[in-house]
Specification:
This protein has two helices and no strands. It has one domain. By secondary structure, it is mainly alpha-helical. The longest helix has about 60 residues.
């Protein structure tokens, strides 16, 4: 009779351990999926930042060219060449 009680208790302990392991695996699986999603987002962000850096490097390298200076003067400073007339479209 005592051996049956011990075997039942042993079975319950083993069953509990298996249940705990299954719950832990499911929890870890969800964490892994979240980490993979975050990793993909970071990879995309790194690629975007590399493109921005390349564009900025290009701007720096060509910042002393006369066409670049004219472009900045027109777009960012609102300047115009002598005799040039600027029209603004306000119909939007």
């Amino acid at each position: 009779m005592k051996t049956k009680k011990a075997s039942i208790i042993t079975k319950l302990v083993v069953l509990t351990a298996i249940g705990y392991a299954v719950v832990t695996l499911i929890s870890l699986s969800a964490k892994i999926e979240a980490a993979e999603s975050a990793k993909q987002a970071l990879i995309k962000e790194v690629a975007e930042k590399k493109e921005q850096n390349a564009a900025l490097e290009h701007s720096i390298e060509h910042s002393d060219e006369i066409e670049t200076i004219k472009e900045v003067a027109r777009t960012k400073l609102g300047l115009a060449m002598p005799g040039e007339i600027i029209f603004y479209d306000v119909s939007n």
